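Q: I'm writing up a methods section and want to include an example of the input and output format. Could you take the sequence below and give the corresponding predicted structure tokens, formatted cleanly so I can copy it straight into the document?
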Amino acid sequence: MCDGRLITSVLVIDDNLEILQLLARCLDRANCHPTCAASALEGIQIAKKVKSFDLYLVDLDLPDVSGLHVGLSLRHLMKHEKVLTSPIIAVTAQSDDVTRKCVIRYGFSAFLGKPFTERQISNLVQHYREGQRQ
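A: Here is the clean output for your methods example:
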């Protein structure tokens, strides 16, 4: 992200297959290349293997490990230069203020509430693309 590349590669971590497919379609339409993981552990393994995702979308309610801990793990990997430093977006049906504040404390860059629209995904990607150009 810091080297002038625009967001194209996105890791999506969500245990709900329908949500994974919906996010993948929305990201495809936003000219991104999504990679999907159905669990926290799978997502972390993929992140470590690929090392160069431009954006992460992480469900907070994963069955194996909390999405909050996934965010912490990704930030740790970024800090130690094991993966590219990139925005992490929390994706969740929990849209209360406490959750929103918590995700920021855990190192997430933003919050996306479920249900979401294709336009919200497109706007999210565009927001980070514009931020990269500055």
